[in-house]
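Sample entry (548 residues):
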Amino acid sequence: MEIVNKIKSNRWFLLIFLVIILIIITYSKIKIQLIIGPSYDAYDFLANAAEFAGKSIGYSDLRPPFISFLISIVFRFDGFSEAPIFIIDGIFYILGTIGLFLLLKLRFNSLYSFLGSLLYATFPILLTYVAVGFPELSSISISIWALYLTVLAVKKDSKFFFISFPLAMLAFLTKFNQALIIFPLFLYILINWKNIKNHRNIAFGIAISSLIIVPVLIYYSFKYGNPIFPFLDFYGTSSNLISEHFDYNPDPFFYIKLLPLVIGNGALLVIFTIMGGLLLSYVKLLLGKSSISEFKINFKEDLLIKLSVPILFVVFLISWGSVSYLLSEILFFFILWGLFKLSKHDNRYDLDFLFLSWFGSFLIFISAYSLKDVRYFLMILPPFAYFLIRGLKIVENQVGLLKQRKLTSYLAPIFILVIILSTALYISTIPDANNKLKTVNINMEEASHWLVNYDPDYKSKIVFSDLWPNTAWVLQMNVQKMPEFKNNQKYYLNLKDYSPTKEDSDVANNFLVENNADYYFSIRDWVNLNNYDPINKFGYVTIYKKKS
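Predicted structure, serialized as tokens:
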């Protein structure tokens, strides 16, 4: 235990230890992902990167541009490869966790900051998406740094706004829903307004961030004829999704129910420790040996605020899931602002309000969003890790063990060991869990290479595919999108429990004929395609050719 006592105040030792763990995790995940291959979304980012590099393959799709821009830098100096998207994603994972450690360090000691960032970095749901190529993890990592530098701008030097606002913009350009980071960012600025030394630097920071988006708007204007079309398309889609999508789930409590599945053994151990500690603290309180003063609030504010907060909270509960999520976001913002004013502007809790706003803003959004995907849970993991450690710290302050010994001095080695062992075990299961994705990627590559040899003039032909980004990337050409058909309607998404009927097959056949398709790469079990013959099959992938 003496070792723990010595190292818990040594920030650099714990930070280096954390980085070593992160590098091992990242290296392991990149190796695994290189074998599995990219996912559907990752192929889109690779294709867009080729276009940004001036080496367009003829296909691109509407995606946030920043990750593709970074990959394009590699493509400019080297040939096409799938590795850059995995490596860049892994680097952001490491940087984001380091940023969280530094952010937690503003509130806790080094040991608590280490435990909090390690918990975050090893949540099973997060490990699943490390080095996969989805934009969520990278955008979250950038947001962590944007908020960390915002705190530094408030507490130390307002010139940090010159970096924090541009980073917030880059997070938005990495994943559009990261625009919600503006709520915790501005709440923190608002509650610390009197402590900011130079308010003009806020305007300068916003101005610099605006310059970043100008080239993007110009690009979108030329490509789509409307500079804000991609943003309108994204936010319009988020409120108008159909119930046939396989990820459709209207349950607003989906992510709360999912919690035990995604947080892992280490986090569960922390939660049980907190619960046990609070129980002991409550017993001591009853015996008159303790007083829980951590959350005492001084209600000596204007009557208007006292009345407004509960009213806003009732309206917020009514609005949850029944109206636009944006209204709920705004109500939640003002509720927190009102609570801070009721706490007599006690800046000891400003980081609590920052993380609570962060957690609530994204939980409101993903709960209201019609599609429920486990990877959206990533957005609330940093503040979730913060409150786990916050709760553990409260328990330690109230309980204590054997004179001056602290709870963490006894439990930290157990936490770390459980987390590391659980992480190693979980990572070992990832290849088997992604076996189908690996097989489909191999099948698509085999089928594409076969077509190249079968028809050397294939690039002059019209090719459709169920997995058009995959096929386009391997063939290095524009591949058309093949929709799904149900009840004489077409859908460019994955339908829930989709099994084509004969009528659906007839509609699909007519669609291919009307669009002059020469070849069609399919992973679906069509009943029949009258005008197309299956000319070869590679596992999940069947190649159809138009009849002469």
